[in-house]
Design a protein that fits this description.
Blueprint: E1 6-13, H1 16-28, E2 32-39, H2 48-64, H3 69-76, H4 80-85, E3 87-95, H5 99-108, E4 112-113
Length: 114
């Protein structure tokens, strides 16, 4: 599929699990170039923002290649406290012909298209 046939989709989620669910379903729609990042980490999060984003992107890629969720959670060191405070953003390229389905996937996973 040509790059011109793809559209950028951006969404936000209240939890990492919701974003992961959307990634799995968007993959079925032939989405690609997934990028997930933690938002609103706060000023005291410091330089760890870059590392957290790199871990999120690695996690998104790992989901595409079959890593289990517990392994991914352990890698990220996530906790219920961190998840409740942070929002997650997700961007992906999806085929233009499937953009409406992709928006429904985001909504069904508990996210909001930005």
């Amino acid at each position: 599929m040509k790059t011109l046939d793809m559209q950028r989709l951006q969404a936000s989620f209240t939890s990492q699990d919701q974003a992961e669910e959307a990634i799995r379903k968007l993959t079925a729609l032939r989405g690609n170039r997934f990028r997930m990042a933690r938002e609103g980490a706060g000023a005291d999060f410091g330089s760890g923002v870059v590392d957290a984003n790199a871990q999120m992107n690695a996690m998104a890629n790992s989901l595409l290649y079959g890593a289990s969720e517990p392994e991914l959670g352990d890698e990220l060191g996530r906790s219920a406290v961190l998840e409740s405070e942070a929002a997650f953003s997700l961007s992906a390229d999806v085929p233009a012909s499937a953009i409406e389905q992709a928006r429904q996937v985001v909504a069904q996973a508990g996210g909001t298209v930005v």
